[in-house]
Amino acid sequence: MNTTATAAVNAPPTVLVHAKGLRKEYGSGEGYVHALDAVDLDVSRGEAVAVMGPSGCGKSTLLHLIGGLDRPSAGELTVAGQRVDQLSERGLAHLRRDEIGFVFQAYHLMDELTAQENVELPALLAGYSPSEARARATALLEQVDLADRGRHLPSMLSGGQRQRVGIARALVNDPEILLADEPTGNLDSAAAYDLLRLLGDLHAEGLTLIIVTHDERIAATADRLISMRDGAFIDETRLTGGSRGNFGTFADWERLG
Amino acid sequence: MSHQNGVNQPPRAARKRAVKGRALLISRLVRRDIRLHLAQALLFVIAIAVASATLTMALSLNGVTNHPYAATRAATKGPDVVGYVTAPQAKNLIHDTGVAASSGPYPLASDTIRFDGRNADALVEGRVTAPAAIDRPLITAGSWVRPGGVVIERTFADALGVSVGDRVTLNHKSFMVAGIAVTAAQPPYPNLCWGTAVVSLKIKGGRETSDQGACANLNFVGEQRNVGLVWMTESDVAGMVSEGHGINDYALDLRLPNPADAQAFANIHTFVPGRSLALSTWEGVASADALLVNDQRGVLKPGALLLTLLAIASVAVLVGRRLSEYARRVGLLKAVGGTPSVIAGTFLLENLVLALIASLVGLMVGWLVSPLLTNPGAALIGTAGAPSISLSTIVEVVGVAIVVALVACLVPAIRAARGSTVDAMNDVARPPRRRGTLIRMSRRLPIPALFGLRLVARRPLRALLSAANVAVTVAGIVAVIAFHADVHSKLSIASGLTAGGLSDPVVNRDEQMLAVITIMLIVLAVLNAFFTTWASVLDARRSSALMRALGARARQVSSGLVVAQLLSALPGAIIGVPLGILLFRAAVQAGSLPSPLWLITIVIGTLVVIAALTVVPARIGSTQSIVEVLQTEAT
Questions:
Q1: Mean pLDDT, residues B402-411 taken together
Q2: What is the model's pLDDT at position A117?
């Protein structure tokens, strides 16, 4: 094998997320819920995908499956080269820790830990030394403009600040993909603007984004928009305005407006 | 982007860094969680500490009388062997080659001593007024014997209630109490006839009996517990013997070249064919002194077992409740990459740290309280001081605490690690299942009952945990009452042996023990009940605020909380009764149980206390701003 061929073999896969016939069902009898119905999806490296749809359509379930927070009932799911549907509990934990960053609508920060400690948490789990974890967390808090809030508990931060801590935490292990579940759902316009600009910057750096949102204006800034209903994709649109580097256009427009 | 966690580092260095990082993380999580849930952590610690303290006391009673006995023996020039012999036997023993020195023989008699309506059998030993070379009783009050003046052994004097200067009656003659003394030559009241080492067989009234120690040659009924020691002048003893009957029995104090040979000496000289000779050794007297403490141990050990079982139950319920609050935390840890081993390890470590702290607190409390319980008593001089806690005691107490925590935490920890991440993160109240009957029923109920029913239906798991907590509390109360009755029935048998209106020092001390166990259990039960109600009211904060927002009055809401508490407490209280009986049976195999009336009273009493305990936090909660509560609980 020559050098070029070896490099091609070792190159990271272009398709980061590959789902085929993905299903998720909950409960039984009267409580049976068909959350995802044979979904097929491919997400390329560096792509920003927005998923929209009414409440209960299955978009959060899709995100949970991609993020390894839940297991599919049927179908194939590959994330960053790993078959999620075949991973052990430990394997899923490693996937979440090393390949995925998750941003939640409800922030999901640990109330008893400071902002700095919340950001350090995944790094320490990943095997970084305390000093390395601290250095990474400090750098990320600076990046999200919260350098002076590191010692604050989440209860002492505003919603926007908490969400930025959440993003810093999601990025601390240099994930391949950032999954965001209604990231601006609990934020006011100004905080939403800041957040979207931050996500735009990350996307510009080449980070793959999958964002679940109700807000069409946010979705319009993505590379691709997927609409869902009753657990299935009903529409998929390539967007021109949201191509690489332009994520956050809406946010600028919103601020100016 | 690529992640660089240790990729370019040598594997060993990377592993070392990872271990350091994880250690920091786990210790941080443990510390912060304990601080956040301080009340629960405290209750957890108290539950285990109470059991550990009792266990420490039970274990540390070993050998606590050894030091005071040695001090008394030294101060009274205690003999190595005491012979209860006839005059010819005494002569032989004095000249025995194995004897280094002797005192006596001192004439012995027996009679009933009477004072202030109380009476007991007394072994009377005749003494000269000059101090003896061996066995020189230490006067703790008054002076030594004189004609018409007796000296009474201190535990016997305490039980009779006599002081120096009082007059007692012996053989229908009145004697003045000249002094009170302690000795290392005889076991103290009430064990004078018990516990001495040598047993000789005698024919009494045509049948063979086994007599022991000082009582061997006297006309007491064997194995009674109502004999004390009195010293008087030899001429006064002679006056006590009926006319025509000379003194046949003597006490002879012997010193051997080596005190450690006392038992061997006794063995050789007692079992000689054709002779009736009773010898008691200093070791035998020391163990008779320890009988006092042995009895206490007999109360403490099952008590410790009872409290340990109760601690396991309390901790299990606490852990269940903690885990339900821990669910969101577990979800978060998993979401950011926590492996099952990290999740289970963090939870286990946290509880093991608490158990370790609790066991150390228990050891400390047990060590501090033990001297109060292990006072050597009036028979000996000096104090036991704080008993030495041996390494085996520490290992046993800490081991029990760790096992208690492990038993209670292992399964929940594994379940937490294996559970669904999404479910754990979305730790929200589950809507109650729609049940037609329940809805039809509740529609007709007054507002407090309707609210109470809804609360229970809304969080069935929490209601179940509350019920379990109440069951544990009631079980503890039932078990301790049964235990109380059992110990008392045993003590009344013992008291029967010390008839004559005398107080029995052993019984008194056993009752002290029982009081300690009861207090510890009550502490545990009250804390349990308080925690249950407080936590339940906190759980219902949002629902209560919502009810008030919809127009319910504060009184209706607090009554609803009481109803909810009682709805979950009632089955718990009922289940607690058989559970308590099982606990009692596990700790004490035999013994009678409390009457049904008692059991019903316990159930009703517990429910009343729980209702009363609920009202206080419910009232405090009802004064909080509705908006504030709804906003806080929503985030």
A1: 79
A2: 93
Token couple for B583: 């606990």
Same domain (yes/no): B473, B600: yes
Q: Which two tokens stand for residue B382?
A: 């000096």
Complex ipTM value = 0.81
B422–A70 C-beta distance less than 8 A: yes
Range of the domain at B411: 24-72+300-423
Q: What does the pLDDT look like over B57-70, one tens digit per residue?
A: 777 665 555 566 77
Give tens-digit pLDDT for A7-41: 444 555 588 999 999 999 887 776 778 889 889 99
Binary contact (B337, A125; C-beta < 8 A): yes
pLDDT band at B1 (very low <50, low <70, confident <90, very high): very low
Does the residue B548 lie in any domain? yes
Q: Is residue B281 part of a domain?
A: no
CA distances from B217 to B84, B249, B612 (A): 7, 7, 64
Q: Is residue A5 part of a domain?
A: no
Residue B320 φ then ψ, to 5°: -55, -45
Q: CA of B542, closest CA in chain A: separation in Å?
A: 18
Number of domains chain A contains? 2
| Structural domain span for residue A143 | 109-174
Q: How many C-beta atoms lie closer than 10 Å to residue A28's C-beta? A: 8
DSSP A74-132: EEEEEETTEEGGG--HHHHHHHHHHTEEEE-TT----TTS-HHHHHHHHHHHHT--HHH
Its pTM stands at 0.64
For chain A positions 1-30, those within 8 Å of chain B (CB to CB) are: none
Q: Are residues A181 and A248 in the same domain?
A: yes
**Residue B575 in tokens:** 């289940």
